[in-house]
Amino acid sequence: MSRRRTLIARSSAGERHYDDRRTAAACAARTPSQERHDLPEFSGHGNVGYGRGHNLAIVQARSEYHLVLNPDVDLDRDALIDALDFLETHPEVGLLTPRISDAQGRIQYLCRRYPTLLDLFVRGFLPGSARRFFTQRLARYEMRDVINERDIVWDPPIVSGCFMLFRTQVLARLSGFDPRYFLYFEDYDLSLRAHDVARVAYVPHVRVLHHGGGAARKGHRHIKLFLASAFKFYRRFGWKFISREH
């Protein structure tokens, strides 16, 4: 068996589906024709939040690796093969993030330096006409000076939750996502904690397509969730208002 096939075989320890919208009664009422797969499915728990929902799968994980993946992400054909190959040859890495592009093939700069309150306000709430006055600040926050198509970047402080490939033992040591975040900042929190137990790597030859974005501009309820999670995040890791030290 080729090295790449071996990597896929070693990592294939099962897939689980979690539905936070379907009630237990609705699941019980499904007909056989509605069953499209043999994969385990867990439901009836309701919408418990992004991080806590992922934790339902994480505690069940018995694989060597565990992928946190958003449903709005498409993988390149060899993305997982290349990612697993990198992890096999770099045992010190516990969390991998790929090159993430939009539908036009442009890089989405989703690796982050530690955010100041000003960074979050400018990026999340100012209109585009006003954000242009903060171009250099946002570029630094989004690590545009080091993220590119070619170079591996070691230990970016924060990576996107749309694709986080972990060694399962690292994720277990971290106890998964902090369930206190219902939505937003759970990936920031988990990224920063991951540095305590392993190295983190941005690997640009691992490529994915992300159809999402703009989460901070989705209406009053989402803004409230964003602000509540930001408060939890800064209480834990420390407040930064304008400083660019990170």
- Helix vs. strand class: alpha/beta
Order of helices and strands: HEHEHEEHEHHHEEHHEH
The mean pLDDT is 86
Q: Which CATH class is shown? A: Alpha Beta
For this structure, the CATH topology is Spore Coat Polysaccharide Biosynthesis Protein SpsA, Chain A
What fraction strand? 15-25%
What would you give as the CATH superfamily?
A: Spore Coat Polysaccharide Biosynthesis Protein SpsA, Chain A
Count of runs of 4 or more consecutive helical residues: 10
What is the secondary structure topology, with strand pairs?
Elements lengths: L2 H9 L5 E3 L4 H5 L12 E3 L6 H9 L6 E5 L3 E3 L3 H11 L3 E9 L15 H9 L2 H4 L3 H7 L11 E2 L8 E5 H6 L12 H9 L4 E12 L9 H18 L9
Parallel strand pairs: 1-2, 5-8
Antiparallel strand pairs: 3-7, 4-8, 5-7, 6-8
Helix pairs in contact: 1-4
Describe the model.
This protein is an alpha/beta fold and about 250 residues long. The chain has one domain: Spore Coat Polysaccharide Biosynthesis Protein SpsA, Chain A. About 35% of the residues lie in helices and about 15% in strands. Strand 1, helix 2 (about 25-30) and strand 2 (about 40-45) form a beta-alpha-beta unit. The relative contact order is 0.18.
